[in-house]
Design brief:
The protein is an alpha+beta fold. It is built from 2 helices and 3 strands, in the order E-E-H-E-H.
């Protein structure tokens, strides 16, 4: 099975930016990665491209999501459009949310049946 990945390049990136490189990944994985990278914006990224297949790409953008970013900052919206030809739009969409409504102390560890052979 050929498994893709997205990784962050911490060595060859302009100060204040984030550079992600991907090999053999579906666009949905890019959406998940962007949701994590932009979690401070409190807006998840949802893949609605309808694109199938797996892609290789490099994406560099500013991590600064404040209203007054650096003058030379590349917004994630601009980077997606310029580098990948994708448009990031603000919209309302259903998203899956995990809700923990009850937590209990774990029970003490009990000896298990032993190793399986």
């Amino acid at each position: 099975m050929d498994c893709g990945f997205i990784a962050q390049d911490r060595n060859n990136v302009q100060a204040g930016n984030r550079r992600d490189f991907a090999r053999n990944v579906p666009i949905g994985s890019l959406a998940v990665n962007l949701s994590y990278a932009l979690r401070d914006a409190n807006k998840p990224v949802v893949d609605q491209t309808g694109l199938a297949g797996k892609y290789d790409f490099v994406l560099e953008y500013s991590r600064d999501i404040q209203s007054q970013p650096r003058a030379d900052a590349i917004s994630v919206t601009d980077a997606l459009k310029h580098d990948l030809g994708l448009k990031l739009e603000s919209a309302t969409a259903p998203v899956a949310v995990l809700v923990l409504d009850h937590v209990e102390e774990p029970s003490p560890n009990r000896p298990g049946p032993g190793p399986r052979h």
